[in-house]
Design a protein that fits this description.
Distance between the termini: 12 Å
Number of domains: 2
Helix content: over 70%
Radius of gyration: 24 Å
Number of helices: 14
CATH topology of the largest domain: MetI-like fold
CATH class of the largest domain: Mainly Alpha
Shape: globular
Order of helices and strands: HHHHHHHHHHHHHH
Strand content: under 5%
CATH architecture of the largest domain: Orthogonal Bundle
Amino acid sequence: MRSTVSKRVLAAVPTLFGVIVVVFLAVHFIPGDPVTAALGDRATAEQVARTRSELGLDRPLLSQFVDYLGRLAHGDLGVSIQNRQSVMEQILTRLPSTATLALAGVVISVLIGVPLGILGATRRGRVADFITLIVSTVGVAAPSFWIALLLSGVFAVKMGWLPTIGGGEPGDIGSIVRALVLPAVALGLSGMALVARMTRSSMLDVLGEDYVRTARAKGAPERRVVYKHALRNAAIPIVTVVGLNFGHLLGGTIVMETVFARPGIGKLLLDAILGRDYPVVQGVTLVIAGSFILVNLLTDLTYSAFDPRLKAREAVH
């Protein structure tokens, strides 16, 4: 297990470095001047030049990149151009809200998508299967912001059951949960479709295997055949999709936090892009990429829990 983790971590290093390079170059080629955006149009040329010098933006791009890598090596993500606050502190303040929303979206996508996929596979060619395909197709095609606006219009504006904006009152669990429901459901529904389709496809492959037919021939209850024999062996593709789905939903929090005005790193990233705040854009993107890599690592390690053959293969090597 330790060897597997080491190999996955080493393999992730080039990917993370590639993200750092691409994002650093991309933000510096965004049209507009970050110093002017921070100081305003009324700033004098002397103020702009002085601020640019203080931030090191007047140096060659390669020199800025080397300094940025040096700060990263010490865990320093820099200081925001807009408000001169630590980028790390801003991210850590907002990260719990985003992580909670992303995890809630993943849980909802699994709780809805897996049973829906199992239903479609066990009722193949019937009305339930047809409904599953329609729901999953609509879920894939419907934009997440449209789902968010629809849910907000029905359950917040018309019914008045849930709040339309905000993350709830700090310290008030009930208020925080109520504010989480709509964005989490909207996020989960956008990811549910992929989970449902993969579950259905994987289950159909497994249900046709000889050991499933043997279990049925021996008189095993259908529920046991489906959930113990079939689902366990069909779980690896499902786990893969759920892991990849987390990265997709983590990116989707940007839309949800914008629609519902939630104080998360997605909203922080969007505001930073609009304000040309280079350090914040780089820091938030790095955190999102690192989270995605970490989830993929955990997904790989989860495989052995569902397929003992993988564990035995790794033990041999």
